[in-house]
Write a structure and sequence with these properties.
The chain is of the alpha+beta class and 370 residues long. It has twelve helices and ten strands. The longest helix has 40 residues. The radius of gyration is 39 Å and the shape is elongated. Bound molecules: 3,4-dihydroxyphenylalanine.
């Protein structure tokens, strides 16, 4: 018995003194390995008489358990210390520059759409979307352009050969205006939305591409009049071009879905920016080159459109507008060829693209600081 006690005390002392995992494992083999001293003691049990085994068995088993537990505790302690040492030595320096990795950039069209969403959100507009594969009814009929309406011819529409699920003709939407109808039908009134997206027309030259981008605006509420339209467009254009001296000119026009209709020109002067960009400067007459740029179509929503969208035009009125997003981007950021927007040339994007970290905000300035 005394011998076992000495063995246990010795084992505890040596295990506590082991200061790395390798020497600890050597001790494990020495005590509990096949030829280990504790293992050999356990083997003696076999040769004992039943009475003797009953007396000594529990003590030897307890010794084995004590050595095994002490080894496990020490191992855990050594591993914890090793982990702490590693954590202390392997510090990550977060101030180091990121490794050189390929960097993407935000396309000017996406940048401008983000800027528009930010500006209009501040005026209480939400962003709506509609399908690019549209039916004849939403794209034309509900916008007061029935079959045989002459305005349809101006849209150079891409039609699909097959009829849609409702039997109507299907097409690639020629403008974002059908989202007006879809939004009124889905959400009723009052309503304040912008609807940015792709539109398609069979047309192609330096200023026209078969696919381009528009943003539609729609406000439906009670007692809405032309003054609301003018204020909204002025506020939008001042925020977008980030200057207070933007001048607007409203000209009477015609769109089937608005009555009255106005076309909006923005006054501009041409100045060469640092990269040779053209900048919109407002229409002060003393600039070297100046004039009016036709920018967007708008008007008071035609009562027939409100009616076809399921609302009572005696109760609800509104205004709408449509702008070319690519055109807005060209004006603000100084590109001169629309086709380059869709070439997918990375050199162009490198020059005109924007950092994804440069989020448009009204407080920090909505425009990118390229
Ligand atoms: N949908 C027209 C187009 O593509 C633009 C437009 C004009 C939209 C007047 C409007 C509007 O909402 O009121 O040419």
């Amino acid at each position: 018995m005394a011998e076992l006690n000495t063995l246990e005390t010795e084992a505890r002392t040596r295990i506590a003194a082991a200061d790395d995992l390798a020497s600890l494992d050597a001790l494990r083999v020495e005590y509990l390995g096949k030829q280990g001293s504790v293992s050999l003691l356990l083997k003696t049990l076999g040769k004992m008489s039943p009475e003797e085994r009953q007396e000594k068995g529990p003590t030897i088993q307890a010794l084995r358990q004590a050595v095994s537990d002490t080894l496990a505790d020490r191992k855990a302690a050594l591993e914890q210390a090793a982990l702490e040492a590693r954590l202390a030595s392997e510090r990550i320096d977060l101030s180091l520059p990121a490794p050189e990795a390929p960097k993407g950039s935000v396309h000017p069209v996406a940048q401008v759409m983000d800027e528009l969403a930010e500006i209009f959100a501040d005026m209480g507009f939400s962003v709506a979307t509609g399908p690019e594969i549209e039916d004849d009814w939403h794209n034309f009929t509900a916008l007061n352009m029935p079959e045989s309406h002459p305005a349809r011819a101006m849209h150079d529409t891409f039609y699909f050969p097959d009829a849609g699920p409702d039997g109507g003709r299907m097409l690639l939407r020629t403008h974002t205006s059908p989202v007006q109808v879809r939004s009124m039908k889905a959400h009723g009134a009052p309503l304040r939305i912008i609807a940015p997206g792709r539109v398609y027309r069979s047309d192609s030259d330096a200023t026209h591409t078969p696919m381009f981008h528009q943003v539609e605006g729609l406000v439906i509420d009670r007692n809405i009049h032309l003054g609301h339209l003018k204020w909204t467009l002025e506020t939008f254009l001042k925020a977008f071009f980030e200057r207070e001296d933007i001048v607007l000119r409203l000209r009477p026009s015609y769109f089937p879905f608005t009555e009255p209709s106005v076309e909006v020109d923005v006054g501009f002067a041409i100045q060469n920016g640092p990269k040779g960009q053209t900048r919109v400067l407002g229409g002060s007459g003393d600039a070297p080159e100046h004039g009016w740029m036709e920018l967007l179509g708008s008007g008071m929503v035609n009562r027939r459109v409100i009616e076809m969208s399921g609302l009572d035009p005696d109760e609800w009125q509104g205004f709408a507008f449509g702008v070319g997003v690519d055109r807005l981007a060209m004006l603000k950021y100084g590109m001169d060829d629309l086709r380059a927007f869709f070439d997918g040339d990375v050199r162009w994007l490198k020059h005109y693209g924007f950092s994804a970290f440069d989020q448009p905000t009204l407080s920090a300035g909505v425009g990118a600081r390229a």
